[in-house]
Amino acid sequence: MRLSLTFGLFCCLPGLVSTQDAPPGQEHDAYKLAYVPDNQKPRVFVLTDILNEPDDQQSVVRYMLYTNEFNTRGICATTSTHLRNDTHPERIEHIVEAYGKVVDNLNKHVHPWNQYASGEDMLSLITTGPSVYGRLALSEPLSEGAKHLISRLQESTEPLWVLIWGGPNTLAQALQHMDRTLSESEFAALRARLRIYAISDQDDTAEWIRYNWPDIFYIVSIHGFTNYAVATWRGMWEGIPSLSLHKVAHEWLAKYIEIGPLGATYPRREIGVEGDTPSFLYLVQNGLGDREDPMVGSWGGRWLPINVGSRVFGDSIDTYYAPGGGNETSNKATCARWRDHFQNDMAARMQWTVSEDFWNATHPPIPNVNGTSGPSPLRISVVPGQQVNLDASATYDPDQPANNSALSFEWFQYQQSGFQAGSNAREQFQVKLEATEEDGETPDLQEANDAGFRPFTKGRMVKVTVPDLPEAEYEYHIILQVTNRKSPDLPVRRYMRVKLTASSNNINPDECCRDMVIPETKNVTW
Questions:
Q1: pLDDT tens, position by position, 59-104
Q2: Can you give the three-state secondary structure of 450-468, one letter per residue?
Q3: Contact assessment for residue 457 and residue 467, using Cβ atoms and an 8 Å cutoff
Q4: Any idea where the Cellulose-binding Sde182 nucleoside hydrolase-like domain is (predicted)?
Q5: What domains are there in the chain, each with its CATH number?
Q6: pLDDT tens across 165-212, in order?
Q7: Which residue from 153, 521, 221, 236 is spatially nearest to 368, judged by alpha carbons?
Q8: Which residues does residue 498 pair with via DSSP β-bridges, in sequence order?
């Protein structure tokens, strides 16, 4: 078997799997796996009221499986209205110690430049916030967690994502301290770096923060205090009656998640399942979301400004069309529609923890549309009524490197990403999707895919026709969903978002370039 030059040079580096374990005729190069450069990883600081009930522990376990995609700057144990007088950093340490036992296996399944941090490095990031409830912390000495948070804000001009799973009084302490000790310009510069994703308001400092500093970017379900039944994040385990709850049930979790040393720290559910997890699912760079634009939708839900120009983003709604008929419109649907996808993804990663053999696990495909691999969206300017050809033939399957014949391809429009029009107006904003390859398929317009979108089209190549609406500029969001079904029980998906901006002011290439000779585009093979 001929080795590539890259493989020959780097075969001894961690994360690269020897070809001796590869299927016949296949060779694996870990440098072709998905790679997020360090400067594109979101900087993350987690605040968790761990041990108030099991779901925070569950979320920490899942978070550890994705830490190679984040630049974790801190994990802080906090209080909340459900855990008012103590914090439990020791429980975080327990989970991270288990992670340390499996990190070598995890690193066999990812790009050599996207390795997981050691258990020791992750342990060094754990701190604790004030051990009192809410605003009482504002009269307490500055906590270790608040000091750490301030230092992480100051160390870089890049945004810092503060994920609030409990009460935010550690953040409140930090803000109060900076307000008192820094100049207004210095404090404003640090506030501009903050990105908050809170799992509802869980103490009385949350509203205080938003009132005093409305310029802070803040994603949160806003509702009556502790009335969590109406929150978007409940879509983790409920929200769409027609959507199966099988993958949040004890039996499924025991079979696929509670395995190996790390899985053994995943506790059984008492109320819900991983209610805090949407905060970092929102940040997973799978090609679907845009962390600086909550309105486009992601595994962590879809969010709208609570007022014109507001930096606070609250719940929005999606319509989920059940594959068997019927539909459900709710805020929870913005998260719940992806449940099968993100549960499978976690299960696939948990399998990595128990096997150092790359070929004994499933890995996410790497979508490619018109030569662009993302995870940032592909942006194309069009004129009203224009047709655009999209080609995903160069998509890469790490589990079958020779070709991508084992992958499945679906295209659909995420209409609510681009428009906030009423339901009666949405039909006029619907693009037309047509398969353009022999084995492609355009199902019936009333048929929905597994994420609840309709219509959708199957195949590597499609033609998109945008509506002929010349009176304004519109943005149409087309999603390519690529599925790796190596494991029939746990298909893993990745996406590529294509943003078509239609305006009469744009130039139609079919009109301006009639005399140009365009070279033929051929399918890519490996």
A1: 999 999 999 999 999 999 999 999 999 999 999 999 999 999 999 9
A2: CCCCCCEEECCEEEEECCC
A3: no
A4: 43-303
A5: 41-336 (3.90.245.10), 366-512 (2.60.40.10)
A6: 999 999 999 999 999 999 999 999 999 999 999 999 999 999 999 999
A7: 521
A8: 378, 478
